[in-house]
Automatic annotation (TrEMBL):
<feature type="region of interest" description="Disordered">
    <location>
        <begin position="326"/>
        <end position="346"/>
    </location>
</feature>
<keyword id="KW-0804">Transcription</keyword>
<protein>
    <submittedName>
        <fullName>LacI family transcriptional regulator</fullName>
    </submittedName>
</protein>
<dbReference type="InterPro" id="IPR028082">
    <property type="entry name" value="Peripla_BP_I"/>
</dbReference>
<dbReference type="GO" id="GO:0003700">
    <property type="term" value="F:DNA-binding transcription factor activity"/>
</dbReference>
<dbReference type="InterPro" id="IPR000843">
    <property type="entry name" value="HTH_LacI"/>
</dbReference>
<keyword id="KW-0805">Transcription regulation</keyword>
<dbReference type="InterPro" id="IPR010982">
    <property type="entry name" value="Lambda_DNA-bd_dom_sf"/>
</dbReference>
<dbReference type="Pfam" id="PF13377">
    <property type="entry name" value="Peripla_BP_3"/>
</dbReference>
<dbReference type="GO" id="GO:0000976">
    <property type="term" value="F:transcription cis-regulatory region binding"/>
</dbReference>
<feature type="domain" description="HTH lacI-type">
    <location>
        <begin position="4"/>
        <end position="59"/>
    </location>
</feature>
<dbReference type="Pfam" id="PF00356">
    <property type="entry name" value="LacI"/>
</dbReference>
<keyword id="KW-0238">DNA-binding</keyword>
<dbReference type="InterPro" id="IPR046335">
    <property type="entry name" value="LacI/GalR-like_sensor"/>
</dbReference>
Amino acid sequence: MKRVTLAQVAEAAGVSVMTASYTYNRPARVSDDARARVLAAADRLGYAGPDPSARSLRRGSTRTLGVVLGEHLTYAFDDPQAVRFLAGIADVCAGAGYGMTILPITGADDDVPRVRAAAVDGFIVWTTADDDPVLAAVRSTKRPAVVHGGPAVAGLGLVSIDNRAAARAIGAVAFAGARRPAVVSFPLSRERISTVVRGPDPAPVLFPVTRERLEGYRDAADDLGLAWTDVTVAVCSRNDGAEAARLAAALFDATDPPDAVAAMGDLLAAGVLDAARAAGRAVPSQVAVTGWDDAAVAADLGLTTVAQSLRDQGAACARAALGATPARSAGPPAAPWSIVRRGSTR
């Protein structure tokens, strides 16, 4: 059916087009009688009101932030840290009268055109890989944009913690007194290959968060006189506790099982604890375990971990994307972190 126009509504109501427009956009400037006639005519003709997209074009703003999420859309609701991060963005958006659009990126051919065509005023990019083409797509829109966690991209803001320093600190706690330390890692690249390797070189790793944490764990091993080349690294394809449990079970079943495991997330650490329990490995006397994020599960399990606020970081990203705070395009990250010691380490 052909869309009813505002001009047709004005004609049916016996008023000017400007009066009809003011009825919807500036009702205080229209008399009660004229407003009633316009709304009655609109109801008779089936006019639903001004086109929101056209209104956005006129004012040059959609009042919406786009969140580029390099995961399946359900990740935004299933992963507790993603939920916290998005809640921080939502806090700022609600206060500023903005909406939020989640743009899941899966590696499909339409990722880049969807990002470029997104009707948003600015972008927040969830941590991704150095070679992710959506970074260039976001930058090409010339709209304000902030990357969470990395990579650092010229012209885009960055909100993160010092992952290498935090990994070195938690690694020192995890590996203390250990002879066979291990790491349960996030993926190394966008291919998300699950594997087990010994002492990988962090330099070629394309996810900055993974790379920097591996560098920090290596620093911790070096500080304790442990050979990084002997450290087993089990790489998970996702931040998934069940996958971590399967990989850890294989490590504990080996002839030289680890006596310390540093996991890059609390969900991964929870999976390690499940595997240790199933293998009859006492925590922490036979195997020390650490996590990352200080999620609710960490306190429940008595897990030593790195505490950071993803909610605060999400809010910082939103404020920067909205121009309320300067976007940090280079230099050291500024978000705070700390070590929380509980009963899972010696």
